[in-house]
C-alpha cells in the first residue's frame, strides 16, 4: 500500500536568523585575525557617530534577536583584550559588539529530515488530538546544519496541522559537561589512540571528571611520557574530546518552535545532521527524550547523543563502539532484556542492530537487512527509531535505488528478540511524487522518525532536502501488507 499524503507542508523561512560571533580574518579558518584593527577603528569613531550607530542597531536588529543588547555586550567582551585602559560608553560597547557579530539564516538553504515525538505540553487539545514535537534539520549558508524544532497537532482522525513557528529564533547557552572515565577510554580505543600517555592520564582521572580534572592529570603525568614523540597529538586529542561534550539550555520563556541547536563543539563545526528523536522510558519508568545525530567537522563524522527531559535543557555527548562509526543510528524507546538497542548502518549499506549497557558505548552490530529489492539496490537504512506494536517493532526504512532515488519502506522485528526479522516491505510505502523530484537534493523522501497515534502511523518527511511533507498510513493495513518472505 502507499502512504496517504495530507495537505500540510513546512517551508524554510529565511527570516529565522541567529546572531553569531564573527571574527574578521578567521572566517576562512586562517590564523591572522584582524580583530585588533577593527577594534582600533571602532575606538576612533567620534561619540556622536557611535550613539547614532547604537540607536540604529537597536532599532533595526533588536526585534530580530532574543536579548540583543546582552548579546552585543558579550561579543564586545570577547575582544576586550585589544583595548588598553580605555573606558567604553554603553553605546560604544554595542557598536563594538556588533562589529564582531553576523546574522546567520539557519534554514536559508533547506529544511528537511523531521523526527516526531509526543510534545512535553499536551494542554489545550480536543478529544482525539495529540501535540507532537518535531525536530528539523535546518541547512544554512555553507551547508551547515543545525537542529530546529516545531510543533504540530495530530487528529482527530487523519489531520495534521503545523503550529506557527514564532520569531525570533533562539539559541542556547552552552556549558562544559562531565565525562565518565570508562566512556573516554572507549572513545580513545575507537580512535586507535590508547597510547601510554593516554593510559597514564586515564589512570589518574576519577570515575567522573571534567576539563579541570583533565588539566590536573596532564600536569601530574610523568614528564618522560609528555616529552615522547606523539605526546602533543595525544594531549590535543584529549582536550578536543573533553570539550566536545556539553550541556546546553534555552531560556525558560522560549517556545519550542523558537529553539535552534547550533554547532557547539569542534567535531560538529560543519553541522549537526539528521537527529532521530525518541521518547525513551527506562526500566524504572523514568521518561526522557533521546536522539542520535551526526556531527560533521568538514572531514569526518562522529555519531553523538542528545538527552533531554523537557526539550529545553540538553546534554550532548560523543558515542563510541563498533556501531557508532557511521550515519543513521536510531535508538529503541526502551531497553530489551536489560540492554539498550539501536539500529545502525555500520557497513554503509545494510541495516544492523547494536546493543549497549549504558547507551553510550555500543557493540559490534549484527546484520538485519541488506539491499535486495530494485528500489533499494544501492543501500538501505532506518528512517527513525523503532515503534512498538503488538506484532513487533515496526521500523521505517529508506532504500536508495537507480538514479539515487530515495524511498521509504518498512521492516518488522520480533518484540523480544529484535535480531529476528519477521517481515519487510515488498514495495515502497512512500516514493517521490511528481512534485517531489526537484529541490536541493533531487528525488529524495526521507524521515528521521514517525509517530503512532490512534492507529495511524504519521510520517513527517523531508522532500529533496528542501521542505517538509506529511503522510500517514493505518498501522494495521501496513502490518498486514508486510511480507514474511525475509
Characterise the protein shown here.
This protein has 486 residues and is an alpha+beta fold. The protein has three domains: 4-12 and 106-173 and 246-481, Glycosyl hydrolase domain, family 43 (Tachylectin-2, Chain A), CATH 2.115.10.20; 17-105, no CATH class; 178-244. The protein is built from ten helices and 31 strands. It has a six-stranded antiparallel β-sheet with strand order 8-11-16-15-14-13. Strands 1, 28, 29, 30 and 31 form a five-stranded antiparallel β-sheet that branches. The longest helix has 15 residues, at 47-61. It is globular and about 75 Å long. The two termini are 18 Å apart. The relative contact order is 0.12. The mean pLDDT is 94.
Question: Secondary structure elements and their pairing?
Answer:
Elements: E1 4-10, E2 17-21, H1 35-44, H2 47-61, H3 68-78, H4 90-98, E3 101-105, E4 110-118, E5 130-139, E6 145-154, E7 160-162, E8 173-176, E9 179-180, H5 181-190, H6 196-204, E10 208-209, H7 211-220, H8 223-226, H9 231-244, E11 246-249, E12 260-261, E13 272-281, E14 287-296, E15 301-308, E16 313-318, E17 320-321, E18 330-331, E19 340-344, E20 351-356, E21 361-362, E22 366-369, E23 379-382, E24 387-389, E25 392-401, E26 405-413, E27 421-424, E28 445-446, E29 451-453, E30 456-463, E31 467-474, H10 475-481
Parallel strand pairs: 17-21
Antiparallel strand pairs: 1-31, 2-3, 4-5, 5-6, 6-7, 6-12, 8-11, 9-10, 11-16, 13-14, 14-15, 15-16, 18-19, 19-20, 20-22, 23-25, 24-25, 25-26, 26-27, 28-30, 29-30, 30-31
